[in-house]
Amino acid sequence: MATDTVLKAEGLTKDFRGFRAVDGVDLSVLRGTVHALIGPNGAGKTTCFNLLTKFLSPSAGRITYKGQDITGMKPAAVARLGLVRSFQISAVFGEMSVNDNIRIALQRRRGHSYDFWRSQRILAELNQEAAELADSVGLSSFLPTPAKELSYGRKRALELATTLALDPEMLLLDEPMAGMGHEDVERTTELIRKIAASRTILMVEHNLSVVATLSNTITVLARGKVLAQGDYKTVSGDPRVVEAYIGS
Ligand code: ADP
């Protein structure tokens, strides 16, 4: 194989009633890397993320995942291929325990009928797997806790656990640190580093020190276009990037 590109966008473009929010973006995410999408407000990051996760359809361009054209596919179909977007926090069921939230995500992955889960042996197996996943995101002491009682940072950790329950090959994270205090940011950074050891990650993130710590590759967007691409040192030393941030 000449290339180990997992997710690729070519000429990705999105128009909103004549306004071009994303303008001919080319992007290649390499296997096993953490790739960050950054840029000043209004640069087109969210739109680009929604295009890549198939929550929006592009006006032009092509998206491939492991060589397969996914441009016209629905989010659920690409998730089945292993490309999964982290759930929105609202997808965590507040009244349910941490254990049950993760277990339901595991059941969804296995895709069996409801009756199947009444088997005690299967239930025990699922609870064991849920406990391991909770442990991997630092929630082992919160298994019986209703999700709504978790701190904001721990809710985001639960959201990650339910995403990991689907066993994605590639994860797309939308501002994983948004709204977090210092301690939660540190914990989540470590968690993403751990996840990145075995999976490919693309994230939109505002916290530049997190981006510097975690990312192998960074794509900087400004006014819908790719302004710079490379490692943190390269892009942060690019005068056009500095200007785009100062000018925003
Ligand atoms: P970022 O995430 O980098 O802040 P966005 O992708 O949210 O940028 O937005 C890029 C540009 O597209 C902004 O000017 C925004 O106002 C515009 N935009 C985003 N979504 C829509 C929409 N649904 N309709 C019209 N304009 C939109």
What would you say this structure looks like, in words?
- This protein has 248 residues and is an alpha/beta fold.
- The protein folds into 2 domains: 1-82 and 168-248, Rossmann fold (3-Layer(aba) Sandwich); 90-165, no CATH class.
- It contains 9 helices and 10 strands.
- It has helices at residues 45-52, 75-80, 98-110, 120-136, 152-164, 182-196, 208-214, 232-236, 239-246; strands at residues 5-16, 19-30, 34-38, 60-65, 68-69, 83-85, 170-174, 200-204, 217-222, 225-230.
- The strands form 2 sheets. A 6-stranded mixed β-sheet has the order 6-7-8-3-9-10, sandwiched between helices.
- Helix 3 crosses helix 4 and helix 3 packs parallel to helix 5.
- The mean pLDDT is 90.
- Adenosine-5'-diphosphate binds at residues 16, 19, 21, 39, 41-47.
- The site of adenosine-5'-diphosphate (ADP) has 11 residues, from strand 2 and helix 1.
Rg from alpha-carbon coordinates: 19 Å
Portion of residues in beta strands equals: 25-35%
- Number of separate strands: 10
Helical stretch count?
A: 9
Backbone shape: globular
Order of helices and strands: EEEHEEHEHHHEHEHEEHH
**CATH superfamily assignment of the largest domain?**
P-loop containing nucleotide triphosphate hydrolases
Mean pLDDT comes to 90
> What ions, cofactors and ligands are bound?
adenosine-5'-diphosphate
Residue share in helix: 25-40%
Q: Which residues sit in consecutive blocks of at least 5 with pLDDT less than 50?
A: none
CATH-scheme architecture of the largest domain:
3-Layer(aba) Sandwich
Distance between the termini: 41 Å
Tell me the number of structural domains: 2
- What is the CATH class designation of the largest domain? Alpha Beta
CATH topology description of the largest domain:
Rossmann fold
- Structural class by helix and strand composition: alpha/beta
